[in-house]
Batch of 2 targets.
Target 1
Amino acid sequence: MGSKAVVSVYLIISLCAAIFVTRGVAQMQNPQAIPGLFPPGLVPIDLVKCWSSLFTVQGCVLAISNSFFSGKFENVEAACCKVFSTLDANCWPHMFPLNPFFPPLLKDNCARIIPNSPAHN
C-alpha cells in the first residue's frame, strides 16, 4: 500500500468516526455534576468569577497584563489595585499559572499605592 492509500484509509475512518459520534457524547459535562470527581470542598475555581471583578475597572486587565509581561507596575492605577486586593488568594494560581510570584509582587506594589491595602504576607 502506498502512502496515498494509507492517508485515504485514515481519512475515511476519521470521517466515519466523526459521523457516527453522537452529539451528546461530545459535549462536556459540568465538573460539579460528576459525583466523586472532586473531593468535597475542592470544587475547581471559577476563572470567570476571578477575572470578572478586574473587568469592572476600565483598563485594569490591560494594565495588569502589561505589568505581567514587563515587570513594571507604574501603569496600575489605584482603582485597579483596590479591585485586585479584594481578589481571593485562591484565584491567583489559576489566573497566573506561569508566574506564581507575580500576584504577591502586584499586591505589594498596590500596598504602596493604596496605604490601607494589606501587603502580601
Target 2
Amino acid sequence: MNNICVCIYTRFWLTHLVFMGAGAMGEIKHLVIVKFKEGVVVEDIVRGMEKLVSEFDLVKSFEWGQDSEGPEMLTQGFTHSFSMTFDKKEDYAEFQSHPNHVEYSATFSAAIEKIVVLCFPSVRVKPSA
C-alpha cells in the first residue's frame, strides 16, 4: 500500500499513528470530521484551532464548516469538518509532532464524541479559478 496515512483516535485519549508510503507526491490533505460532545462550546474549539494553525507556515490552508444540508441518515451524527492542506508529507508530520499541536490535540479530543480522520495526497481534477 503506497501513499497512505492512517490516523487512529480513541474516544477519551488521543492516539495518533501516521504511516505514509514513500514517494507521496502533491499536497497532503488532512480531513477531520467530528461530532462534539453535548455542552461543548464549539466556537471555543474553533478559535483554538484557528490560533493553532496561524502559528504554522507549514499549514498552507485551513477550512472548517458545520453541516447544514446533509440528510441525518448520511451524516451519522457528525456535525463539523476541518480540513488542512500541507505541501508535502514531511510538513504534515512536522505539524503533527509539534508540541503545540500535541497539546491542543488533548483539548480537541476531550471535546469530541466521535471522529473520522483521513489523510491523503490530493489529486486536483479542476484547479481553483
